[in-house]
Amino acid sequence: MSKSVIVIGAGASGLMAAGFAAKNGNTVTLIERNDKVGRKLMITGKGRCNVTNACTMLNELIENVPVNGRFLYTAFSRFMPSDTMDFFESLGVPLKIERGNRVFPVSDKSVDIVDALNGFVKSNGVKRITERVTSLIIENGEIKGVKCENGNEYFADAVIVATGGKSYPQTGSTGDGYNFARQAGHTVINPKPSLVPLECHKGFCSRLMGLTLKNIAITVYDNEKFREIYSDFGELLFTHFGVSGPVVLSASSHIRDMKSGRYELHIDLKPALSSEQLDKRLLREFKENPSKAYINIMNSLLPKSLVPVFVGLTGIHPATKANQVTKEMRYEIINLLKDFKLTITDFRPIDEAVVTSGGVEVKEINPKTMESKLCKGLYFCGEVIDVDAYTGGFNLQIAFSTGFLAGNSV
User: Fold this and answer.
1) Could you give the residue ranges of the DSSP H alpha helices within 194-306?
2) Which end of the chain has the lower number of beta carbons within 10 A, N or C?
3) Interval 357-409: pLDDT, tens
4) Is 352 a member of any domain?
5) Whether 222 and 243 share a structural domain
6) Domain co-membership, 279 together with 327
7) Residues 6+ apart with CB under 8 A from 229
8) 241, containing H or E segment
């Protein structure tokens, strides 16, 4: 029997939910506060849209969701990355797989993904309304509809909340879904940033602002637990507050219970060379340029803007001639090249995060349907739920899988 369904939010999960709910013969109304759908999708992956991760094993998928990954067992089982890829290619968007199994549209344009989803909901007869929902209409523990900011009320047999988290509020993710959940009696785990730039106390970060280090390796160390918690290889960007870039965003999702000074970021500036190989390289440089100042020799090894900072950290006078550099000085240089250390002081604010950690308590949601256990006819999908994953397409896969499951469950 067909139902009337309201979906709140036209992001990745909301568009999936609305499209599949309508495809199953339901009458679906999609309410989105923005004039355009998929606002956050448009800016993901630097505008390229990392659609999913092409991993094939369910356990691998769940392992990449550090927060409540097991909750997604059914959602992932019903709609795997291969299903996501087939889905978009069937809508006319050819895809490609890059390093780390990251999947992108061949065009490198996120607009192609947004247009495909928009076309999917339209072709299935979804009605769209541009209004802001302010509250749910609930009677005797059952959902009846929604109220909007302009006073309009819309009634339905089921409501799917797909409002996102609190990251990128300019795209419409301002935490409204948490208020709807609380109204229905749900617990909301306090939202905090995930996949977010990191603040560092080192004063030289602002001096290096704008410098991108490519092909470096990083390790994050937990000083409280005396162990390495994450390592990666790729690109890092210095900012006025600390560091950002792909490897930093990935690292941030592994940091829990942030305290100033608890975590250290160790950067290997020359991961392709061992300490012994670096020593031979330095000896050759010094031998070929015996009268050259140490600071000028470092220009051949490091980006120009990094050299003064690096030289200052070694404690070796920049004017020291190459033939005056001792074995101990060389070791100091090599140690810093292989272990350029930053102390992490905090996450950047949540509105700079790619995704939000926290949200509706998963114990209060049926994992087999995405329906609320507290309010009949109320469903949740996407980032509003307390699940978040590492970078590489896993967070969008959560959105697609939970949206698919919610849309098919109503």
Assistant:
1) 204-207, 246-252, 275-288, 294-298
2) N
3) 789 999 999 999 999 999 999 999 999 999 988 888 999 999 999 999 999 99
4) no
5) yes
6) yes
7) 220, 221, 222, 254, 255, 263
8) none
CA–CA dist 163, 402 (Å, integer): 13
Name the token pair of 88: 């978009």
12 and 112, same structural domain? Answer: yes
Tokens representing residue 2 in the block: 């067909």
- Read off the tokens for 22: 């309508």
As a whole number of Å, the CA-based R_g of the chain is 25
Q: How many Å apart are CA 198 and CA 265, to the nearest integer? A: 10
How far is residue 228's CA from residue 235's CA, in Å, rounded to a whole number? 20
For residue 176, give the nearest of 356, 371, 367 by alpha carbon.
356
pLDDT, average across residues 152-161: 98
pTM of the model: 0.82
Domain region containing 12: 4-192+357-409
User: Same domain, yes or no, for 97 and 115?
Assistant: yes
Judged against a pLDDT cut of 80, whether residue 212 lies above it is answered with yes
Q: Indicate if 161 and 249 belong to the same structural domain.
A: no
